[in-house]
Amino acid sequence: MTETHVYEQPLNEKVRAFLRLEKLFHQFAFHLKHGSDWNNRVAIDSILEILAFTTRSDIKLEVLKELERQHTRLERLSKRPQIDQSQLASVLKNIQKRIGELQAISGQVGQDTKNVELLTAIAQKSSVPGSICDFDLPALRHWLSLPKDTRQKHIDKWFRPFGPLDRAVQLILEVLRHSAEDTEEVAHNGFFQKSLDTNQAIQLLRISIPDNVICYPEISAGKHRFSVRFMKNEDPSIRPEQCQDDVSFKLKMCAI
Description:
Elements: E1 4-10, H1 13-34, H2 37-56, H3 59-77, H4 85-103, H5 111-114, H6 117-125, H7 138-144, H8 148-159, H9 163-177, E2 183-187, E3 191-195, E4 204-210, E5 215-221, E6 225-232, E7 241-242, E8 247-254
Helix pairs in contact: 1-2, 1-9, 2-8, 3-4, 3-9, 4-9
């Protein structure tokens, strides 16, 4: 079975924000799993980035609105006979569960974590050129010398307030990504363009190409159409150029 690489392009600010959060959550989970002091340091940076992201906007409200919107749209599908009612009921139940988890959070997401003294000190020192050294923050050096299990418990506690947001964003994007089927397309001379149906609010484009293809897609989208240029760059020190060959790929236009 041929492996594929998937490239995604959000078509609105809301989905763009969800994808950024998803990446931060995945980054945190990866480094928490490996658990070395270096991994723990990056895991802390991930928490601080998540905290900064959620502080700048009322992301909890945005996620709740999207969960409720998806729930309403999916409920309408229950009237269609070709829909797998059991699977749909399971998704609706999960959405309701995520809504309940977020509604149970009083105030801003991660407020307790924001007040952790060590994390505040790290955030204040993060702008220092050359990263934080031991002499900048001895408290961090001391914390990193603690046993691995102790550090993991601390990090788990600091991340816990973001758990409901993590699960909600994962579900929103999972539902969105499964809202459409792949179509087989060809970019002639490395270029592809398609009009967008103004009656259907496409939220996310997904392009899948086999891993043996040596080019990658650059996607640009407007209100009425989007275009894809397949670029190649065998030497990263020089400017990429457009592929001149025809490129076969799969396209998914996700909307719900």
